[in-house]
Design brief:
With 267 residues, this protein is of the alpha+beta class. The protein has one domain. Helix content is 29%, strand content 16%. The longest helix is centred in the middle third of the chain and has 20 residues. It is globular.
Length: 267
Amino acid sequence: MSAKPSKGASTAPFEHPPGSLRRQSRRSKRWFLGRAPSRVAAALGLALLLLGARAQAEAPLDEKILPLDQYTTAKGRALATKYAPDLKTLNAGIYHCMPWVEVDKHSISFQRPRHLLPADSRYLSLRIFIEQDPSPVFARLPLQDRASAMYSRYVGPLLRRMTKNPAMTADPDLEGFTIILDWLKQSAATKGDRPVHETIAVFIDRATAADFLAGRVTAREMAGGVKILGWDGDTAVGALRVTLYKDDFVATYKVKNYQLEPGVICP
């Protein structure tokens, strides 16, 4: 499919918008939702019967990390240099161990959230695209419920992957973590319409992340205290409040007959 999702740099919550997001994966495998909560889970279960095997070339792994020469300040370059091995570990871990999510070109970086002060506050930013088949049930849910389902499934596991190096939650030059989740909006469309994404961006300050990882605050408490912004295509919908559901799918689901590459271990 040649059409690209609608998205605009002017509304992105980060300094360098990533490249075009893909809805197909070279790692294509069908998988189904595991245990999930109530009506949102039932809807998400239908929505996440994911796309069949359709091959498409994707950016090499290293290209998913923003290059040093793309940073505009010494602070950004210093963080990217200091944590370069950790960014590569994060990138490879998602690629090998999280089915049906994609990290596109330059989607891992130390960004400057535009709504935060001081001007050069740096957050480790990760943007993923979640692939899914159409589901009328999921599409009928309010955006806040769809955002809640996606947050519940992905934010906690991704934050843990982003902070495998404990130095990050103690580094005064790293103010926090941004997790951006994209999925294709499921709505009636006529031939020739451009696909549109729905997006949530979750901004977690370093102290809150450290408290969550150490068990001093619960996942529900963290969800109630962080800033979450939403987009419908290019249109900002403002701040969102999510309802957190128990969802251990990322931790427990195993793809049948999936063979890891030699030397790769998925936790």
